[in-house]
Design goal:
9 helices, mainly alpha, about 250 residues
Length: about 250
């Protein structure tokens, strides 16, 4: 009986995953194309600077600090929101339960996070082996990321992307249930919370303690600290989704 009960659940989860990646442009193709485009733009700027320097010595770290690769993290929030909004009604309309839909969505988000984390880590390794693309540049592993082992770098990005995607899933669930008004209310409350935290830090002069926290933990440890928030965001998204009504 258990096997019979689990079979439809597994099938619905797989169906949800397939629907999420049925159009690979948004989730699998466009992010890489834009990321490579941003990299090529940065590389062109590096080359222009070297030509303008005309043989003069530059700071060896001139091209080592770059935030271009981080845009893909924030793009994953958009991917998650769109995924929830575009597929929920369709998948539930096919007979899937909300639980199986959310499990399938979670599997998709974890898979995408690992896919991008490993992909960016491999590109960072190519960057290292080519001496920063021949110009001592660092796009895929800027600043302190250049010192991380390959596996640690991949895990950091996978965890960071997982965090972004599950936060996006919670926001997407809000949109599915409450529409644009729910999203605006959420961001208004979030802005107030951020302002409150900043006010508290300023009021208690806790900037030094905050800086101490970040400087005394490794990048991987900071990424691991995001896991509880990732789990809470996922559970919150599921709780909201349970009461959402599919739109025809």
């Amino acid at each position: 009986m258990t096997a019979v009960a689990l079979a439809p659940t597994g099938k619905r989860i797989v169906t949800t995953v397939r629907i999420h990646v049925a159009n690979p442009w948004t989730t699998l193709i466009a992010p890489w194309l834009i990321l490579i485009g941003v990299f090529l733009l940065n590389f062109a700027i590096w080359r222009i600077i070297l030509i303008a320097a005309d043989g003069r010595d530059l700071d060896p770290n001139a091209f080592r600090n770059n935030g271009g690769v981080s845009w893909v993290l924030f793009y994953m929030i958009v991917v998650a929101i769109q995924a929830m909004n575009q597929t929920f009604s369709f998948v539930v309309g096919l007979g899937s339960t909300r639980r199986d839909y959310f499990l399938g969505t979670g599997v998709t988000f974890v898979g995408l996070s690992v896919f991008y984390g490993v992909g960016i880590a491999l590109l960072s390794e190519v960057e290292r082996l080519t001496n920063g693309w021949g110009v001592n540049g660092a796009f895929f592993a800027p600043g302190p990321f250049g010192d991380l082992p390959l596996w640690e770098f991949a895990l950091f990005y996978a965890l960071a992307m997982m965090f972004m995607m599950f936060v996006g899933s919670a926001i997407g669930a809000m949109f599915v249930r409450w529409g644009a008004s729910g999203i605006m209310t959420f961001f208004a409350v979030l802005a107030l919370l951020i302002l409150g935290v900043l006010y508290y830090i300023a009021k208690t002069n806790a900037w030094a303690q905050l800086g101490h926290f970040f400087t005394n933990h490794s990048l991987l440890e900071l990424a691991l600290f995001s896991l509880p928030v990732t789990v809470v965001a996922g559970l919150a998204g599921y709780a909201i989704m349970r009461r959402a009504t599919p739109k025809g």
